[in-house]
Amino acid sequence: MNKNQLQTLSKVTYYLGYVSIIGSIAIWFLTGGTTPETQAHAERFGIFVGLWAPTFFILSNRLDRYAEKSNQ
Question: Which of 5, 19, 28, 29 has the greatest count of CB atoms below 10 A from its CB?
């Protein structure tokens, strides 16, 4: 991959990190339901999606570093 592709992929993964956070909150609130079981499921699923954010941010950082390294 060339430098521009790596930088673009880095930006995409960075934005996906924020989308994951927003999606997690949306899932938690919008799929809550009325019974305790459905509320617990919505909470667990929201947390699961929210855990993707650090992965996307780390990937973004690594891809950006790799793009800088390939430029030299």
Answer: 28
